[in-house]
Structures are given as C-alpha cells and as structure tokens.
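User: These chains co-purify. Model them together.
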Amino acid sequence: MPMILLKSVAGLFAGVAVGALSLAYWPQIHPTNVAARLVVEQPQQVVQAAPPALEKSAVDKLALALRDVQPNAAPAGFGSTRGLTLTPTNVDFSPPSDDARRFRAQGLVALAGGDVAAARAFLERAADAGDARALLVLGDAYDPATLTRLGAVGLKGDPSRARDYYHRANEAGLAAARQRIAAYEVSQ
Amino acid sequence: MVRYDHPVVRNGKVILWHGAWRERLRSKDPGQSAKIQAPDAKDQNQSAAVPAAPPKPSQNSFALLADPNDACASRLASDFVAAMQAGGADGRIVAGGVSAAALGAAVNFDSADLAIAPLDALVADPQASAAWRERAPYIAKLSGEPIEIVAARDVADLGQLAGREVGFGVANSADATSAAALFNTLGVAPRPAYEPLADALNDLAAGRLAAVVAVDGRCAPTLAQFGADKRFHELAVRWTPAMRSIYAPARLTAKERPNLIDAAEKIDTVATPRALIALDAAPGSPRAQTAAALTKTFFAGFDRLLVPDKDGAWRDVNLAAEAPWPRLRAAQEWIDAAKPASDASLQSFRAAARSAASADGGPAAQDSDRLYDSLMQWRGAGQ
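Assistant: Joint model of the two components:
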C-alpha cells in the first residue's frame, strides 16, 4: 500500500513537470496580429478552399472553431467585423472584371442621382458578373433607411431583399456587410 | 410658334383657338376674354364668330396625354387619373402620340396639361425638342420598360436587321419613338414598318417582317401569346456607355417570355424610362401655376398609387429621381422640402458621382472603387 501511494505521488509530480515544460515552450499567440490578418474588406479567401473530400459542414465547423479561439474576437453577433470570413466554395473569388466595375460605377452614379431603379439594374448586372461590392450596394439600394437618408421620396424599399443582398455580400467576404446585418437585427 | 391664347386664322376663318376649352384660366381673369383678338384687324370680324368654348373644367382639372398603343402607359395613366381624383382633382385621359414631333405639337396646340412620355422622345434628338424643351418640364421620372425585339431564330443579332423591314409600332407611338432612338444609338438602320403590334406580329409570323420592336411587352397579351411554335426568339441588346443618359440594362427570362426564351437562357436588353411632363408650362407661365397645383396633389397623394390594385411600376418610382431634362420648378421645390437635409459626406458622394458621370464616356471601371469608398464613408457616417 505505501508503495502504491509512493508511485502515485511520483506520477503526479512527473505530470506537473511535463505540463509546466509544455506551457513554457508553447509558441505564443499574438492575438492582435491574428485578428488584423483576418479582417478583410475586399472579398478574399481567408480560409483556403477545402479539399474536395471535405464537406461544407466540416468547413463551417472549422471556421467556428477558429473564430472561437480568436482572443480578440468581438462579442457574438453579425456586428463583429473581426470574425473570420468564410466564403462558400461556390463563390468566384476572382477580382471583378472591368465590365462589372463599370456597371457598378454606373449604378453608383444612378444611385447618387436618385435613380434607384436604374441603379439596381446596373448593380444587378455587376453582381451577376462577379462583383461582390455590387451586392452590398444593392442591399443599400433596397434598404428603406438608406433610401430615406439618400433623399428618396415615395420609394419604400424592400427590407427582405436588402437583408438578402447583405447576406450575400457577407458570404462573398465583405466585412461591411456584417455591420449592415447587425444594424438590421438591432432595428428589428 | 403660336401663343396659346391667340386664334389661328387661315383665309379669314378661325381654324383653331389655342386653349379655348381652358376657360378656367380666363375665369380667373374675367377681363381676359375681351382681350383676345385675332392677329390683325382684317380678321376681327371673324374672331367675333368664334364659337363659344365648351363647358369648362374647374381650376384643378387636367387632361393627361398618353399613347393608346402603349398598354403600360395607358395603365399608368388610368392609375394616375384615379389617384388624382381621390385627391380632389378632376382628370381625363387624352389619347395621342408621344414622339418628339407629337409632343411638340401637343405643347403648341394645347391639347393636354400633362403627358406620360418615353424619356427617349425627349432627349434622344435634342434638335427635335429644342423649340419646346423649356415649355415641357418633367414632374417625375417614372420607371422603365424593357425594349423587346422579337425576330425569327435565324436572326442572331441586331446587326442583321440593317436594311431589313422591322415593325416599329404605330407612327409617333412610344414603340416607334424608342425603336428609332435605339437603332440610331446602335448605328443600325432597319427599314421601319409602322403598324400596330398585333399586325406586326402577324407579319413577322408570315415572314413579311424581319423583327418587331415592343416597349410595352409587360402589358401586351399579344406578345405574351406569340411564338408558341418556337420559331422566334428575343434578340439581345447590349448596353453600352453611349446609352447611359437614357437607358438602363434590363434582363428577360423564360419566366416573362416562355415562348421566346429558353428555360436556362437570359436575354440582356435595355429599359427606357418614362416621364410625367407638364405641357406648355414654361417657367412663370399661368400653365406652370396650374401644373404646380396638380404636382402638389400628385406628390401628396402618391401613396395611393402604391396599393396592390395599381400597376407595380409605381413602386419603383422615386419622385426625387433626376432626369436629363428641365424639371418643373414647383416639383423640385416640393421634393427639396420633403428631403432630409444632406450631410457633408452625402454631398461628397454626390459630387464624386457627378464628376465621374461628366467624364467622356461616363463613369469608368476605375471610378467604381472611388465611388464605392465614398458611399461607404457616407453610410458609415450615419451609423
């Protein structure tokens, strides 16, 4: 019996020693740097595309796990712009073409002039051509609060379409889309 | 140009008295009837023989000119009159052409107070509208309708229509006006055939026309039923920067045209907006005052047009939307009063947009990020 007790105490000491050594030599994480790398505005693929065999649900779990370990992660909710951006693999990450950018520019000009119907048409064309920023502006072009601030008269907007475009912009990697979604959730 | 309060005399007979039915203007000034004279002494006796004007409408009454061949415009006109009547105005629809020539005639001959006209009739040919531009200010820019060009399947693109006969709709109609303006912009010169849409589609089916242009396809059951034998299709119209002052891109799918578009296909085209304009309402004129009163009734009661039994196109209208055409001053003042005050960042966004729009060729790809950043700055400032 004393022998068993002695072995247990020795094992305990050995475990503590190994744990201490592990902590001492574990590479340090610099939270701020990690967060800064992960904040993106342009649609960029922060997490590399998953191998074909990896299911999307597994990628989602990985993203959630990584987000959870971010020391500087903002409180839960879409308002956080610090979270990891995970983009579905079916979205084209390539930079928008000149045609898409020209349509976006034309849409923004129309929006500034109050021609919201034309702005939506131009922006839809840009979004169809793969311009993620056009999705965010499309959300604004349907957002009743934005339209009011823009000086629209008589035009009511469409909250559900605005939210849908904001979600699509978020999926495409635009951090600003999360702010819009958060603002929507607060206003509901 | 003839003043609307003067009779037109030919061979000693008064053949037209502009504004004769518009007694309300004279009733405001009882002495005005006595002031109206024939142009010269020789015709004074004839002027006395001018028949009495018909029963006159009230001060807040109006006549709205709309193209009877444009089913969508007719529907908008009907909605407009109903909404105005609910607001206390007394209106009626007058059928007529909406080409630049027809609108110019409407301005000069005082055939209506207001008109629903395609914007390309106003701006596509500045020379044609220069004489009456200031006298036909717009009140509001209305939503656009896609221009549809239907052709046999062996016609692959618009270029193949050069020199061939194409149905443009009735002369002076919205279809004819937009078709002419569009082909002019594209640099393609087909031979126009002027006939109603139903007849034109029959001629297309019989091979007598190469294509048919329709602007009011959304409201035209004739077009919806056409092409069940799958021999025809919609031609694509590619939007180019040269179209930027008038047209916006639009897209047609099989949902709208199951007979003419395959299920997985999307056809790009362009949409031409309409505008509500005041006729013969030059700044400072009595008609401008009448138009101002009607504008106030229209704007104040605009929500009556946003209910389900009215055309859905009203729900896309921003009364504050700008058009490349003079606006009725009273309309602009009403909108300015209704708008919230704009902050510095919004003004900065608008200035950036104006700068990009004024460049040769319009906004370019490289302007997109600058404008986007400007918009984001404004949006951020408000949160």
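The first helix of chain B runs from residue 23 to 28.
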